[in-house]
Amino acid sequence: MCDGLSMTTRFLLVEDDPADVEFVSRAFDSSGHQLLVVSDGQQAIDYLSGKGAYADRRKFPLPQVILLDLKMPRVNGFEFLKWLRHQSPGDLRLLPVIIMSSSDEPSDVKAAYALGVNSYLTKPIQWQEFQERMKAVNVFWGSHTQVPSVSAA
Fold this sequence. Notes:
single chain, globular
């Protein structure tokens, strides 16, 4: 459980665009929260499952919130969400997921919510607006929202 006062919130960013990773990382620099990064849905599945390179939980702790892009190679955001909500081990399915996508297509928004996403944000084009949005995510999900403690077992 995270009350925002006694603990740093760990966010897992699932994003294949290096520029977006840099933007989010910069926005998190002064947040006091931890940002973990993987570059596609398959790496996110491996990370959460503790497979391969991600087996050491001291080095790769489970996140408390997931920031997810939709359009990625190998396993896209929708496929990852299906896995997380229906096939993931333990109670990982309870992890809050925030979509951060450049798509504002109503069909993408509807599909994401149907798969159990907790929030859907469209990535703004302007850096300042992107930074403000990331600060809002940090404050809300990192400091004001209680998230469940989960395990992959």
